[in-house]
Amino acid sequence: MGKPVWPHSTDRGRLMRMMRRRSAALTFLAIGAGAVMYLYFRGPFNRERREVDKLFADWNRRDSPGCAVGVGRNGSAVLTRAYGMSSIELGVPIAVDSVFPAASISKQFTAMSILLLAKQGKLSLDDPVQKYVPEMPEYEVPITLRHLLNHTSGLRDGFGLEGWASPREDGDRNDRIAWFLARQKGLNFATGSRFQYNNGAYNLLGTIVKRVSGQSLRKFAEANIFEPLGMTRTHFQDTPSDMVEGLVSGYVQHAQGWSRGTEIPGTVGNAGLQTTVEDLLRWAQNFAEPRVGDTALIEAMLTPTTLTNGEKVDYAFGVNVGHYRGSRVIEHGGGDQGISTYLAMFPEHGLAVAVLCNSDAIPSGALETRIADIYLGNKLKPIEATTSAAAPKSVSLPANQLERETGWYGDSSKSLLRVVADGGKLTVRDVEGDDIPFEMIPIGEHEFVVSAGGIPMTRVVFAGTEMRVTPFAGGSAQVFAKLNTTTLSVAELQAFSGEFRSEELDSIYKVEAQAGKLMMVPYGRPKIVLDATGPDTFTGSGTGVVRFSRNGRGLIDGFTLNRSLAEGVRFQRVK
Asked: Is 435 left (phi over 0), alpha (psi -120 to 50) or beta?
């Protein structure tokens, strides 16, 4: 073999210099890459991501639903993360662009649609509802669109009414809710005098958008809100049979595991929005830099409500405008079977947080607050000493102690809770909603905590004949008085038996005595067991408080159903 041929000495020197420069460049790049990797995984600006990951670790599994999370700062997404499964059965994980039903986050988009129609001169917020829904009855104080927007109309909630009525499947569901509202002869309170969250009012606003614009709420919002803001994965789902790419499945938690749960289909205005965290961050930036609407419109949307007595209410139009740790926050959550969502904006800090979860067992609101704490840190006022991120250690209580706390409890607004001891555990049910039991974990002799997803949500203290319910992080207590139940004889129960019809619901209920109890049988719905809690007064799951009335001869001639969201719905005995 011949000897290798070396380059000319001049060429060899040039080659050596080039190699040294290349080696230095590679070393620099290696150091730079290492620094970037360190900063990404361990660096200070990525501390927030690691802390958020810890918050959602319990749901980031292949056998659990979960959440998508988005954090925006001054219009730019600084974090988008996904945890858990979009479909447990199919093994499909949640992605950052997964589409979630948003439940009541929908309301702010309905409010914006009404405000845009007002800006276009097609309606006025102070127009009476009857101008657009002429079938609605006249009330002593006219109900305006403004009253619907800020939940001060006094209307009975349309969904509560529908839940009491015999099942109806005819026609458009929005129109059906309007039909129920139009039959009501009374209000919960004088218009403008109180704030009471009302899903039916926003359903009615969705109907008004359709009647005024000539387009469905879905089409109007798409053309006037979603397209201008680039919210390409967002829509109002007004047709339940439509296929939606990337839509998550919803899940409800039970002792045995998970089952499927979903938002009631076909209604829009109060709910019905389907969206992604990335699209919600685009929407949030519109409050700071309006592209849809203008500064005056945004200001009107964020103006808190003033009641007729001069009292201020934090709720504005579709959003709550309050304060957290000294900073202004614009926020709203949503929840239904298989849905838990939250969107919050901190305008003083340019921060927006969106949390969308596909299970109502995941506390999206509490998680949003924790994320805000992570990103804003010492920019917020210190957390009060009463606030704790973790629940106190549980204690063991004897069965007789738990039994003493059981029973029906009601507050001044006619909200009802039922506390039951079963299997060595105490559970509480809000019988006005889905009637789902929540375990009450004892942390003292008469003190309990209700948690969601391991995060303590509510503190409950039993004091004699009262039950005090307080948000775990602090706040004012809601006081529930224990209702005394009585036992009636067979003859006494028989006096209430008969058929009763409600013109306001177009429904018939049968009341009958069975096995020492009074049973209420709504046609087309399951039987309800009633407990006597006073003279001619009963309480049942789903019915609220049932008050029977008597004629001049002392005979039962009818009753009213009373819940906090729908009071005084009248049934008359059928002769």
From this structure: left
Supply the range of the domain harboring residue 439.
399-483
pLDDT at 13: 47
User: Residue 86 contacts by C-beta under 8 Å, 6 or more apart in sequence?
Assistant: 92, 93, 94, 95, 98, 246, 248, 249, 358
**Burial bucket for residue 172 (CB in 10 Å: 0-12, 13-18, 19+):** middle
pLDDT of residue 15: 39
Phi, psi for residue 451 in degrees, rounded to 5: -110, 160
- 118 and 248 assigned to the same domain: yes
Q: Residue for token digits 């830099």?
A: 289
Examine the domain organization and report whether 150 and 270 are in the same domain.
Answer: yes
Q: Which tokens in the block code for residue 336? A: 């239904």
Which pLDDT score is estimated for 324? Answer: 95
pLDDT at 431: 72
**Phi and psi at residue 334, to the nearest 5°:** -150, 150
What parts of the chain have a pLDDT lower than 70? Answer: 1-45, 384-391, 432-435, 453-454
Between vectors from CA 385 to CA 430 and to CA 332, what angle results, nearest 5°? 45
What three-state secondary structure class fits 564?
coil
Residues in the chain: 575
Q: So what's the pLDDT on residue 38?
A: 42
Instruction: Specify if 18 maps to a domain.
Output: no
**CB-count exposure of residue 219 (10 Å: 0-12, 13-18, 19+):** middle
- CB-based burial label for 435 (10 Å; 0-12, 13-18, 19+): exposed
Query: CA-CA distance, 248 to 529, in Å (whole number)?
Result: 36
**How many C-beta neighbours within 10 Å does residue 201 have?**
29
Q: Which amino acid is at 339?
A: I
The CA-atom distances, in angstroms, between 291 and each of 109, 126, 277, 317, 526 are: 14, 25, 19, 18, 50
For residue 82, being part of any structural domain is answered with no
d(CA 269, CA 174): 9
Same domain, 499 and 452: no
Radius of gyration (C-alpha) of the chain in whole angstroms: 29
- Domain membership flag for residue 22: no
Tokens of 409: 């409890």
The distance in angstroms from the start CA to the end CA of the chain is 121
Residue 420 lies in a domain: yes
Shared domain check, 373 and 336: yes
The helix/strand/coil state of 48 is helix
pTM of this prediction exceeds 0.70: yes
Give the sign of the dihedral formed by CA 150, CA 153, CA 157, CA 158.
negative
Q: What angle do CA 171, 526, 166 make, to 5 degrees?
A: 30
Contact call for residues 563 and 431 (beta carbons, < 8 A): no
For residue 452, the surrounding DSSP H or E stretch is strand 447-452
Burial class for 111, CB neighbours closer than 10 Å (0-12, 13-18, 19+): buried
